[in-house]
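Protein: allantoinase
Species: Nonomuraea diastatica
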Amino acid sequence: MTAFDLVVRSRRTVTPEGERAAAVAVRGEKIVALYDHAAPLDAAEDIDLRDLALLPGLVDTHVHVNEPGRAHWEGFASATRAAAAGGVTTILDMPLNSLPPTVNVGAFEAKLRAAAGQCQVDVGFWGGAVPGNVKELAPLRERGVHGFKCFMSPSGVEEFPPLSGSEARRALEEVAGLGGVMVVHAEDPALLGEPSGPTYREFLDSRPDKAERSAVEQVVRLAGETGARAHILHVSSAACLDVLEEARARGAAVTAETCPHYLTLAAEQVPEGETAYKCCPPIRSEANRDLLWDGLRRGVLSCVVSDHSPSPAELKAPDFAAAWGGIASLQLGLRAVWTEASRRGFGLADVVRWMSANPASMAEISGKGGIKPGNDADLVAFDPVPTGLVDATLLHHRNPVTPYHGRTLKGAVLTTWLRGRPVDGEPCGRLLLGER
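Structure follows.
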């Protein structure tokens, strides 16, 4: 009987301690040990990647799957197939834009039924905090959501309305008592406007930096007053960074993420009429983008996740005022971030920290986020060198709409293993229920 089921060797194995030459030994679904790269090991399968990189599976805690109810936007089968192709082995599904939204246990059960038997990677779930459902939060947490999501401004779908200031306080008090986390879409509705016309500049002007900053200030204050743990979603504006840094220096339980599109795209590059670039909050200037990278460097922003929010092409028409606001990038996030990160002097260990370890920690997903003994054998063979053009029609997303179409990105995902098994198109993913 062989000692191990699988050994994967790489001279560029990215571990929590950094990049090193190593042989990763797997028994069953778990990583059981790391050895020297050339160590003689008895295994049923022994793969040597040589100078290709071996990464832990990425953990994307911000994905809108939209099933049930809007599976024609994106469903579990297509989303998880795209995730695996992009090196993502765990996703957390947002409580909107599915019908019904995940705001009570009945809706969560419908979500679980929709996902069952379809997923090629592991899938966990956020619950929703909306006006009037504070009594639903404890049952949702008990049933297994990893935490809760709320909006401070209109979400874009009427069935998931935003919380007022007093409602947000009450929800945060409840979340604090449950020991969970509230993830927040932070834009102040009082400082948002309607686009004055159909262009990108007019759309951008309608969602100014000050709206994000004001909302983040409110979340930081409420988190401190209620004792709740809060996480700021998709930070697009560098105007928020000093607020977040000061909160962190005070020991506030507030973390924050940004997204590949804010780190790799810029307002100056948005072609007129190309509404695939529309998202909320919006893609801002090149100078702002540089500051977001500095926020990552300093640890003010800890996670980089996709906010994959796709829609059919017809909803991206006719102009920036009317189009659906969401970026489709689940399959492309690793390549997009690596393209820009490597240009700016960051290494694969940085990318893994932002896109795997820190999201897993933020959402308290056990057994994920790093190549270390005891964790699930979620692994990615990644070639960091080649470049290639993105063809949206070849992506696994349900709808071929993405601002990355025609862009040159660096790197290639060669193989993705989920719990020691290569992802090969079969729905072998599990539904992850959070622990109380």
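Remarks: The CA atoms of residues 392 and 400 lie 5 Å apart.
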